[in-house]
Design goal:
The protein is of the alpha/beta class. Strands 3-2-7-16-17-18 form a six-stranded mixed beta sheet, with no helix packed on it. A five-stranded parallel beta sheet has the order 11-12-13-14-15. It is built from eleven helices and 18 strands. The longest helix has 19 residues. Helix 2 crosses helix 3. The two termini are about 20 Å apart. The structure holds zinc ion. The site of zinc ion has 5 residues, from loops.
Length: about 400
């Protein structure tokens, strides 16, 4: 038995923190959380003093196989599977050390993230999509997920389920990373997306759509997708919120995974088009919040030097810069993300019965969200993996 003491605890849900918590852990699970009081006799005690405890963070959208270089696509193409796995291990490890104890990989090559997941190495819990479904020469076609037509789509979903994927990812529109594709244009018909969602749900898997432009967003909602990544409302040369669509989105069960944030690197900026659109996107995400669109916070880590795999704390910060509260941002990277990833019964909260995935930070993130970056210790399944 392990007992962790700290100054305060945010449980992943409640605005009211637990003062002077004693978290009791056995066999990797949280047994109890008491406010103050003694640790049980015989328990090993780790006293973290002034530290604040929060659930280990969950990044619901990243790419372990993209190395956060200037040319992640070229770098991956030059790597063998073994070389790519080594780089992915490092990426996952960097996430874990930043307190990200669960990652959802939304696009790899050759199902490498599933291989890494099954190594059970000293890594975060990995949920993986495998190669995203995309149209011929569509967004991220080079990852190997090209398919078309209702039959092709159903077969592609079945293959991923058979390979042990945790989620299905579909590129519903073009994307920034892939030349010759257009973020504002759809890549699949509604009929094709419906087939993908039906097949995924029939096989018990959640399904998420990469979608920037309005037609792709509308199709993903109408097809019954569980979530939409980015949801940036990009047009051919800008981005524009659509109040009618935001209302439709808010009324649907579909959750938006807002891929936010970037680390400040001197001399480095987000991709030019994204930078140009940032002001617009801020407006759009504020409108989405006002319309009460359900949102969680993710990073899309790996795709650029400003998005390394340990950047999720900056994503949470960005969410607050869009007008959301620290509590909403914290929920967005813990219990909210866990529910979306369908691990909400064991991750994303600090409560009895939950996995003892715990991040200890200096400062109170409910008061100052940047405290998420001041990592004091990380526990994964009750094991101390990081202590500064
Ligand atoms: Zn992505």
């Amino acid at each position: 038995m392990l007992a962790i003491r700290a100054a305060r605890l945010f449980d992943g849900v409640s605005a009211a923190p637990v003062e002077q918590p004693v978290v009791l852990i056995d066999s990797g699970k949280i047994v109890s959380i008491q406010a103050s009081g003694p640790a049980p006799e015989g328990a090993e005690v780790i006293d973290l003093g002034e530290a604040h405890l929060v659930p280990g963070m969950i990044d619901a959208h990243l790419h372990l196989c993209f190395d956060a270089s200037f040319d992640p696509v070229g770098a991956l193409a030059a790597r063998s599977d073994d070389e790519a796995l080594a780089q992915m291990r490092e990426a996952a490890r960097s996430a874990l050390l930043a307190g990200i104890t669960t990652v959802r990989d939304l696009g790899d090559r050759d199902y490498l993230a599933i291989r890494l997941r099954d190594e059970h190495d000293d890594l975060p819990t990995i949920l993986a999509a495998g190669p995203p479904l995309t149209s011929p020469k569509g967004h991220c076609w080079f990852l190997g997920g090209e398919t078309e037509g209702v039959q092709g789509i159903r077969a592609a979903v079945q293959e991923r389920a058979a390979r042990g994927a945790d989620v299905i990812k579909v590129m519903a529109t073009g994307g920034e990373l892939t030349e010759g594709t257009y973020p504002h244009l759809p890549q699949f018909s509604l009929e094709e997306l419906k087939a993908a969602a039906d097949e995924a749900h029939r096989l018990g898997l959640p399904i998420t759509a990469h979608a920037h432009g309005v037609p792709g967003i509308v199709n993903a909602i109408d097809a019954g997708f569980d979530s939409i990544e980015h949801c940036s409302f990009m047009t051919e040369d800008s981005a524009e919120a659509d109040p009618v669509l935001l209302a439709k989105l808010a009324a649907s069960p579909t959750v938006v995974s807002a891929t936010l944030g970037h680390i400040p690197v001197p001399g480095l900026d987000p991709p030019p088009r994204i930078k140009m659109l940032l002001a617009k996107l801020t407006e759009i995400f504020q409108a989405a919040a006002e319309a009460r669109v359900k949102m969680i916070v993710s990073s899309d880590a790996g795709i650029a030097p400003v998005k390394p795999h340990n950047a999720l704390a900056y994503s949470a910060l960005h969410f607050t810069e869009l007008g959301r509260t620290n509590l909403e941002a914290l929920i967005g990277v813990t219990s909210g993300a866990a529910d979306l990833c369908r691990v909400g019964d064991r991750k994303g909260r600090l409560a009895p019965g939950y996995d003892a995935d715990i991040l200890a930070v200096q400062g109170d993130p409910l008061v100052d969200i940047t405290a998420l970056r001041n990592v004091v210790a990380v526990f994964k399944d009750g094991r101390l993996v990081h202590n500064q």
